[in-house]
Amino acid sequence: MLGRGFHWKWLKDSPPLLVPKFKNIHPQPDLDLEIQLLLLKAAIYEVPYQPCFISRIFLVPKSRGGNRLIIDLSSLDSHILAPYFLMHNHKSLVDTLHPPAWMSTIDLKDAYLHVPIRQCLHKYLAFSFGSKLYFFRALPFSLNVAPHIFTCILRWPLSLLHLQGINVIACLDDWVIWDTSHELTAKAVNTATSLLSNLGFLINIPKSHLPSSTDVEWLGIRWFPLLGRWALPEDKQMSIHKACSITKTSLTQAMGIFSWQTQLCHPNTTPQSTPATTTLVPQNSFKPLAPRRSEATASKLSQTPVTVATSQNVVNFPPFSTNQETRSTFGPMLPFQVGEVTLYLIRSHALGTRTSQPCT
């Protein structure tokens, strides 16, 4: 597949190709800079004027500064088959990591751009800027099948590491490695980074946490593997406090930021010991955490029970240890001071799951 390029499956017929109409636009130096960077990385290339499937482009600010160029492929996605699949998340780490342990994280740079697209499909990944027309030759970030195909590609290097007894989980380009000691974790990280480099992947050093540690952030959660506990980073706690007020709308917004944590401590889930030589797939099916909530989900969150209390004590986040008795019956609780009372947001049920299928 990587030799000829990835070819997706159409739902029915491919969308029609149209002759692009170029428009005079005002200078956009930030957008032009991102296009030039993609040209340097050989992710896109300029083509002559021809019929193609044009999509709009825009910039999204990155959390650590800079911008990311996004091509809006929502119209194209409606014609492409996107199968369900299993993807690791926070819950996977809770079910497989048994404290005490040490952790490290690896972030892959421009991960999707390592996947080439079949030549005949380039014309469907087109955008224009000024009077120029560009085609994507690499997998775009916003394509609906991108997470599925990249997860399937990573199964082989992950299986090689598992066969060597290395504890590792990957959620797309975010990897986490752990072991029972500082030395063993450091050795596992060296093995993983060497394998990834030999396969042509680039390690994003600033976003990775290569030294083994007992306080590591992964997928927006701060993990303490030596103690078997986790917590929200301070910036996310501040976001929740700012979004919280007495109105139903703002409470729903706060729950939208906060609710996804409850999958870490579902009352009916018992951690299972998984051999290091097998693929770390949880026993129950689950879907990846969506960055945005639909209207139906938002409505469901708004019906979450809210308890009003006057206590000023901060409730500790529940542990992710293997002892079922230490797990909280409810989801995480976080106090919010509103006037003279403190609101405790309590999630007592996790969101519904969707039947998933493994990669083939």
TrEMBL record:
GO terms for biological process: DNA biosynthetic process. It comes from the Eukaryota. It holds the Pfam family RVT_1. This is Reverse transcriptase domain-containing protein. Residues 41-223 form the Reverse transcriptase domain.
